[in-house]
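User: I'm writing a tutorial on reading structure tokens. Could you give me a worked example: one chain, its sequence, then its tokens, then a sentence or two explaining what the tokens reveal?
Assistant: Sure. Here is the example chain.
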Amino acid sequence: MPDKLQIHPVILCGGAGTRLWPMSREAWPKQFQKLTSGHSLLQETAARTADAGRYAPPFIVCNHEHRFIVAEQLRQIDIAPGHIVLEPVQRNTAPAAAVAAVMLAARDPAALMLVLPSDHAIADVDAFHAAVATAAGAAASGALVTFGIAPDAPETGYGYIHRGAPLGDVAGCYDVAAFAEKPDRAAAEGYLADGGWLWNSGMFLFGATDYLAELERLEPDMVARCREAVAGAVPDLDFDRLDVAPFEAAPSRSIDYAVMEHTARAVVVPAEIGWCDVGAWSALWEFGTPDGAGNLIAGDVVAVEATGNYLRGEGRLVAALGIEDLVVVATEDAVLVVPMNRAQDVRTLVEAMKAEGRTEAEYHPRVYRPWGHYHTVHEGERFQVKRITVNPGASLSLQMHEHRAEHWIVIAGTARVTRGDEVFTLNGDQSTFIPPRTKHRLQNPTDSPLVLIEVQSGAYLGEDDIVRFEDDYGRA
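And here are its predicted structure tokens:
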């Protein structure tokens, strides 16, 4: 790596991860889940680049609906982001990287971008840093670098890169001879036997101005729309909210499809880093360390005479007897059972649930908000019960409901309640009633969590029955 060259991690955090349902859902996708360790995949990705000597503070691009989740997860691991940029709609990786490149290049035309998906797992972090250092040497000279993973199986779920001649002035870096889309089984076996093919990791390192130059040559409309989206961006608390109309108009393309497959600047760094894209439950089974029976077990599981399975119990017991080569994942409200060799097809199952109007396809019982979270305990005709947790010092909006009444019972902590013109305090085991069409607010004035039970009753209980008058999070 050239002396004193700081690299800007750009973490792309917009995916939905439907193949990892039922844990990954659109409202709380896989990058926010603790799937491989005690930290989420996003936290692991950010932590890998938390070295001020090598890397600048991370630049995050995420869906606007997930902004508070991203901010809170970074706060939990004491990482202050350089930017959190909000996408109004998903437009794939090329526009997301272009937005970051426009903003970084405006401050430093020589800035190098390390583009990282937020949902990858990497076992060998030292080898990762070494691969980045190799790539930085090539990127500083104008190359657009991708990272290739040495395949150990004829995987049909990944794209492939054919390694070309060594790059003369950067050891460990090679020209890209060809890209190949996800192959069928026979082609994948041929790539593995050939020895010159690598899995396409989806990670990149290049100069911000170099990326923009090639993208402008190949996709000029995309760059124009991204520049407009950045020019019209507005601050929203600690976030940068892109201008909606131009970003929606940007073509949706991946970095590979928009640039890497069509540029003469593409080079590849082979990286043996213990990489996994965590794209399906089968990938997690391969990434982990199975037990003596070949099972990978997480959570509350009892397995007897079971072999070659991925078994996970989140919030309930999974008891398995005499099964093999299955994925069984149980959460509080859903159970997935699928053959290991069909794990890539879970997305099809999710689409079928959406077509039936099943909320389990998109939402967990626990829903996160900037002030904390709520958990739906029970639903019935004209009523539902929620367990609400308000973070220390946090406050819900001053709001009103047209159709429902609410009963609040404090379980732990102290609540400051605004109800109409009244402001009063509730402690443990105390309660209050909020009639319909009454302005109200719930606040936690202490440094401990506030936990309460909320019983809603009325003819309509949808989350859209809300009018906000004041809000600490810019939602009024």
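What the tokens reveal: Residues 281-355 form one domain. The radius of gyration is 24 Å.
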